[in-house]
């Protein structure tokens, strides 16, 4: 994927950045929590590492999801309006499409509290006691917004594929389709 023939295409540039964020976010979201779960470690055994990784979990995921929205948008534009592909994603515009999700992740990292890993449930919480932990309202709003945007973009892609399929049918296929 790092070959010049691939990185000259906008979609592979976005995919490369997504791959980097995927690998980076596996450390705080999967690898170390799995290790902590196996060894039953809590905040007390490694407080600074726990705070650092807890602060990185959601922002890394949010940047990853934002990059995926950029990828879906790229695919939709390429499929629906191929002439706009180079205008919207070519040259230095790719920095905008990959940079905004990264800046969003950095904003979340700097503005919101860290989560703490709780080994009894194998989860992160906003507080040392999971029963009293309260998630900031921004997190579920962000999750719902991302879900809505992804659903809208995917529905637009399905619609575009359906329209393209209808336009590509031959006259014979249209007659057969109407008879059935």
Describe the structure.
The N and C termini lie far apart (45 Å). This protein has a two-stranded antiparallel ribbon with strand order 1-2. The relative contact order is 0.12. The protein has 180 residues and is mostly helical. It is built from seven helices and two strands. The mean pLDDT is 86. The protein has one domain. It has helices spanning 4-7, 10-39, 47-80, 82-89, 93-111, 138-168, 171-179, and strands spanning 116-118, 123-125. Keywords: Membrane, Transmembrane, Transmembrane helix. InterPro entries: 7TM_GPCR_serpentine_rcpt_Srt. Pfam families: 7TM_GPCR_Srt.
Helix percentage: over 70%
Counting DSSP E segments of at least 2 residues, the number of strands comes to 2
Q: Encode the helix/strand succession as letters.
A: HHHHHEEHH
What are the segments in which pLDDT stays under 50 over at least 5 consecutive residues?
Answer: none
N-C termini distance = 45 Å
* Strand order, largest beta sheet: 1-2
Basic shape = elongated
As a whole number of angstroms, the C-alpha radius of gyration is 21 Å
- The helix-and-strand class reads mainly alpha
Number of helices, where a helix is a run of at least 4 consecutive DSSP H or I residues: 7
InterPro entries: 7TM_GPCR_serpentine_rcpt_Srt
Keywords: Membrane, Transmembrane, Transmembrane helix
Pfam family, one: 7TM_GPCR_Srt
């Amino acid at each position: 994927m790092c070959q010049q023939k691939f990185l000259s295409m906008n979609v592979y540039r976005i995919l490369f950045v997504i791959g980097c964020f995927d690998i980076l976010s596996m450390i705080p979201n999967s690898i170390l929590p799995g290790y902590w779960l196996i060894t039953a470690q809590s905040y007390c055994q490694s407080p600074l590492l726990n705070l650092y990784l807890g602060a990185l979990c959601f922002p890394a995921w949010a940047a990853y999801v934002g990059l995926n929205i950029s990828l879906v948008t790229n695919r939709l534009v390429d499929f629906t309006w191929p002439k706009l592909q180079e205008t919207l994603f070519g040259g230095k515009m790719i920095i905008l499409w990959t940079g905004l999700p990264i800046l969003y992740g950095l904003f979340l990292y700097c503005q919101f509290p860290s989560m703490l890993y709780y080994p009894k449930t194998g989860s992160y919480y906003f507080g040392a006691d999971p029963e009293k932990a309260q998630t900031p309202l921004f997190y579920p709003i962000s999750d719902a917004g991302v879900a809505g945007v992804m659903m809208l973009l995917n529905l637009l892609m399905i619609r575009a594929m359906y329209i393209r399929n209808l336009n590509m049918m031959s006259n014979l296929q249209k007659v057969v389709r109407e008879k059935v």
